[in-house]
Amino acid sequence: MAAMTMTRPNDPFTSDIARFHEVKGAKDEPFAELTRYHEVRGVREMVESFRVREVPSYYVKPVNERRFTPPSAAVLSMEQQIPCIDLEALSGQELLSAIANACRDWGFFQVLNHGLPSQLVQNMAKQSSEFFAQPLEEKMKCSTPARVSGPVHFGGGGNRDWRDVLKLNCAPASIVAKEYWPQRPAGFRDTMEEYSSQQQALAIRLLKLISESLGLESNYLVAACGEPKVVMAINHYPPCPDPSLTMGIKAHSDPNTITMLLQDDVGGLQVFKEDRWIDVRPLPNALVINVGDQLQILSNGKYSSCLHRVVNNNRQARTSIATFFSPAHACIIGPAPGLVDEVNPAIYPNIVYADYIKAFYTQALGPNNKNGGYLAGIELHRRYNCYTSSSSISS
Ligand SMILES: O=C(O)CCC(=O)C(=O)O
Ligand SMILES: [Fe+2]
C-alpha cells in the first residue's frame, strides 16, 4: 500500500514502482522492470522514493568487479598521486616533458591554471549538483524521445552502476538539442553553454601541447580528429548503503581522444597502475585530464589510455562533469605516420572511429563482456585489421 501512495497518478511506471516495492528486500528483483526504472529515473529517485536502506541485488556487482577484490584491492599509499601540471608555471620544453611523462606513465594528470574562469567553474559545479537535487519531473524534461541514444538524456548510468547521469551533445552544432538543456536551476543552461565552449578550447590547447610533446606538428592531433564530437556527461553518485557491493562507474578506459573532468571535493575516482587502484585526490581549482583510446592509437602506443573507475561512498553524493572530445565518426584513426618507422612499426591498424565505438560498446561494456572493459576496444582494434564500413551510432 505504501508503494501506491508514493507513486504519482498517471505515472507510466506505476506498475514498475509498485512491483519494485513489493519485491524490495527479496533476493531477485525483476530485471527488466528495474532496468527500465533505472534507465528512466535513476538511482537517486529509487533511493528517495523507496527509502532504500540496502543495496537491491540489481546493483550488486559480481565479486571480481567490486572495490576490495584481490589481487588489485589495495589503494597505494597517500603519497602516490597522478601528476599535477601547472599550465602557467611551466612553459616550453619543461611543460612538454611534464605532459609527455604524464601521458606515457599514467595516462592521467591534473592541470592547474588551465584558464577557465573560476567563477564559471564554481557555477558549473554548484548548478550541476543542484540539478540532481531537483524533483524527478524537472530532470526528466531533459530527455529527448530517443532517450539514451538521443542528444540529451537524463537517467541512470549504464552497467547497473550506482550513478545517475545527464548527458548532452555539445558539438558539432548539427547534433546539439539546446531546447532540451536544463532550464533549472536558473542560469544553468547559460553556464553549460559557456563551460562547454571553454572546455572545447582547452581540449584543443591540450591536444596541441600533446602533439608537440610527441614531436608532431602542433595541429596534428586536432586535425586527425576532423570535426570533433564533444559530449558532456554530468555524473551524480548518490550515497550508497553498502559501497563494498556496488560501483559508481565500472572499470573502463575512455574510447574517445581526450577527457577533461571537473570533480567536486568528495573523491571516488581511481586509476589503475601496476596492479593497484590509486585515488585521484580532489585538488581545488584543478581539472583531471585523461588519455582516451584514440590518443593511445594515434600515438602508436606511446601514450596510455588508462583503466579507471569510480567507487561509491555511504556519506555524501558526488558530482563530476566529464567532457569527452572524440574524432568525427567518419574519421579514420591510426598511428601517426610521423611516429612509425622500421624500428617502431605501427602497432594498431587504421579503423573508422564509428566502428571502434560500436565494438567498444558491444564488446567492452555489454552484458557479456569477458574482460572487464579493459581497453577492450583497443584489443579488438589490434585483432581485426579489416574494419571497412562506417556505421551511424550516437555515442
Ligand atoms: O566521475 C568520474 O570521476 C569519472 C567519470 C568517468 O570515468 C566517465 O564518465 O567516463
Ligand atoms: Fe571514464
TrEMBL record:
InterPro entries per UniProt: DIOX_N (IPR026992), IPNS-like_FE2OG_OXY (IPR044861), IPNS-like_sf (IPR027443), Oxoglu/Fe-dep_dioxygenase_dom (IPR005123), Plant_2OG-oxidoreductases (IPR050295)
Residues annotated as domain Fe2OG dioxygenase: 227-327
Ribosomal protein recorded as keyword: no
Molecular function per GO: metal ion binding; oxidoreductase activity
Keyword entries, A-Z: Iron, Metal-binding, Oxidoreductase
Coiled-coil intervals: none
Stored Pfam families: 2OG-FeII_Oxy, DIOX_N
Keyword Transferase annotated: no
Family recorded in the similarity comment: Belongs to the iron/ascorbate-dependent oxidoreductase family.
The protein's name: Fe2OG dioxygenase domain-containing protein
Protein source organism: Marchantia polymorpha (Common liverwort)
